Batch of 4 targets.
Target 1
Amino acid sequence: MAAAARDAAEQALRTAISRGDLPPGHRLVEEELAGQLGVNRSSVRLAIDVLIADGLVERIPHRGARVRVVSVAEAVATTECRMVLEGLLARKAAERVTDEQAGRLRAQLAAMGEAVAGGDLLKYSELISQLHGLVHDTARHPVAAGLVDRLQAQVVRHQFQLSLRPGRPQVSLGELTAVVDAIAAGDPDGAESATVAHFRSVVAALSEPTSNPGGPA
């Protein structure tokens, strides 16, 4: 019961941070959050501890916890590290993919296309994260996947904002289609190359002067 409350609080806070409802620098007051989320302060405190470990929140001496400010430069550097690991995961996924998993990847891609066509960019953003999760499941490389999860958590708001930028969803959809096509075809070199190309594109977009502080890519 306590674990469920903590997990619920963690997910709610993580989502609020990624969408900008709790912006960088926002103080996290345990008592207020407990009332808003319908859990006790202990659950909120434990949830905040998890988010601190993930790099989303920080504790300031004598001031309490707040949403951590992640600069564009840090987001770029983190994404460059993630690019290498995601390339490895895509390669492993292409080596190990089954027909059933290939079908799931293609179905996910179709759902992403529908979201972009319908202008539902919030849904598209969520579907991107799910696609990466499917690739990780297919790769069956828990060490690399775990490292990616930690890196991704730190820049989730930047990538979320990026996915809402005009024209960016169409670009990323094309890039991710190439990734899925290569994995489904059992082409490790192609899968790794397409994944690296996608994340290079993400880095370039984050580095543009118009980039806003903020996260899926």
Target 2
Amino acid sequence: MEVVIVPDAAAGGELIAEAMAALLRRKPEALLGVATGSTPLPVYRALSAKVRAGEVEVSGARICQLDEYVGLPAGHPESYRSVVLREVVEPLGLAESAFMGPDGAAEDVPAACAAYDRALTEAGGVDLQLLGIGTDGHIGFNEPCSSLASRTRIKTLTEQTRKDNARFFDSIDQVPHHVITQGIGTILEARHVVLLATGESKADAVALAVEGPLSALVPASALQLHPHATIVADEAAASRLKLGDYFRATYAAKPAWQGI
């Protein structure tokens, strides 16, 4: 995998936003896969700033969702659809019709999962998928021991993930127990996968994903199989990489026009 170590979260956000902008300059109708949570916010802020400055045109861009809670009522402010519309689609000035995601309120959730998986393929596939990483190495909501070939499906959240997400709700009791998530196999079909990790709490997970063995215990390690996977980590998140100096030197020597 390509590993880029940046000074801080803002630098990581700028780097990934420029990769997205470069993609949209080449392919104005690109399908961007987005993640929720606090980690990717610097990416969305930086990309929105580029749009406001006239550095990139996004009117043809499409946005797709990585995952969604099951059972939250339509319009709930913490549904991932609401979060993506609020933090990505609206700041970029896109119409809601540019957005696609799974139906977490469907009566037949397995059918909704299969429908979304098909929809991504029918849309031409994801051009760039942005990911975060959990402290246990999960990507999307593919918790440890998820199948590395898994497709979009319903998953039960671990207690640790529910605790991690409780900060977005009034209490942990309000955090749903189930989610729809793109599977690892679905994620790996994106043409470019970019994972952003910030903070010391992610250091162990990053080290295991990048330098550890391919293992279902660390779902993010599946990115080792991808032909174009980029890990962007700040110094704290990269602090346990044994090859940190090698990654810094390798990226420093890369021609600037290649981007990530």
Target 3
Amino acid sequence: MAAAVDSPPIHRDGASLEAISDAIDTVNILKDGPAFDAESQFDAAKDKSAFRQYEDACERVKSFYAEQHAKQTVAHNLAARERFHSPSRSRPEMGIWEAIEKLNSLIDDSDPDTELSQIQHLLQSAEAIRRDGKPRWMQLTGLIHDLGKLMLFFDDCCEGQWDVVGDTFPVGCRFDDRCVYRETFAANPDSRHPVYSTKYGMYSRGCGMDKLLMSWGHDEYLYLVLKDQSTLPLEALAMIRYHSFYPWHKEGAYTEFMAEGDEVLLNAVRAFNPYDLYSKSDDVPDVAKLKPYYLELIDEFFPQKKIRW
């Protein structure tokens, strides 16, 4: 595997991260949220007529994706996972609620463009799922789905905002035309690689979505942290790992790699998506009032109390 390349220290600017993340979310909301076992109801009266319009996105979003698309290479992703799994990497231990509160410190109250804190967004997602009567494991998934952004606090987990947020996609094969700003992948050296630039690249048709090397970000990081440290079902882990994989769950790209069982994962991610995005316009939750309920929920699926991040 490729060795990690020395890079300057990361500037952990919470306000800047949230500004980019919120700007991306603004254009990410689906026009027609597809159903899972039951169609979401909390968003029935919401206007969903003009979202994910990237041609009208602000320059911040366009610049972000230009950098992300240029730098998300196979070499970078192998190095990122090598660093994550390194026995020498310090892995802080903390509980889920403690992690939520730590992530909340990324918000800069002086930032005029940020109205919601992380904990408010996570509780909005969870509460929307709860109001629709969805299973307890899905409520918890709504509460924790963005905790991968904690990678900004830890050494050797990311190199900048470009490998924390934004749409995700597989590396090691041709970048699909249904990815946003497809033209900016021209700056990625893998787009000219004799193998990685081909349709199937280093994979094979029907190999299964779990065989794809997904672009590094908070989705993949949290999936790797939780996949063997919780009792969450496979569908919940799919919601966490693929909730930013819009080319797949929104545009229908990369389906040639799907194997038996992957349709279940795709349906789960599609079911989760409205709760992540449409809930942002809901009332601001009362954290103190809701905390006891979610502490009980956390204990149900994380009986060991502490997570190695």
Target 4
Amino acid sequence: MDTPPAETFYEPLDEDRFASTAATAGPWSPGLQHGGPVSALLGRAFERHDPVPGTRIARVTVEILTPVPVAPLRVAVRTVRPGRRVSMLEGDLFHDERLVARATGWRIVAAPDHIDPTDHAPAPPPLPASGQTVVAWPEAHLDGYLSAMEWRYTEGSFTGRGPGRTWARARVPLVAGEDDTPLVRALVLADSAAGVGAQYDFAKLQVINTDVTVALHRDPVGEWICMDSRVHASPRGSGLAQASLADASGEFGQVLQTLLVDEHRR
């Protein structure tokens, strides 16, 4: 579609409560959210909780306890391990006071300016000049998160199988009236790893992540992020999605997801 389903993912109701818009809806149902906006909303709360100058959120893990409805949400954050150089934050996401997701985040003091940077990853491919039309399995809901993001694949496709690589950016802000931070931009995309690296036909198998871990050794620069993703699964096992995140200067982080791989339960 040419226009996003809403002008933002969330509308603020007060300091810790948000109305979810149609743009948050994932591909499985128009009434259930994609994990990207959910993760980013928790990450945003971490950044705003008792900020400490000279530190950064280096790692966020989100546990998706139940499908998150497209409905009003409340976020609560606390410090569980205080410290001047290293601290751990914990965040809860509620719908009607029911806990639907929980996250932890490590806040770490920024490294000294004089250390030598290291980069062992290959450079990302150039950003393609144009994007792809959002296409998926027949019953997928496209008029939500998938359309609120702009996708430019360089390997694989929405209907392809096997490892995939795409540049992507959100077409709407996370919260109305705000500019997304680098952490928010990374988290909005990160939960798409299993989809970008899709190995199976989603019309035949349900592949859903129970969690997402995002570790960033530096903050991304610019709107566009390149995700290089692959999915691993075994009979009588479970699934695992791994992805690297890069900007125009190179890789800046990694994504890991644990996956439920099962037959559809109609």
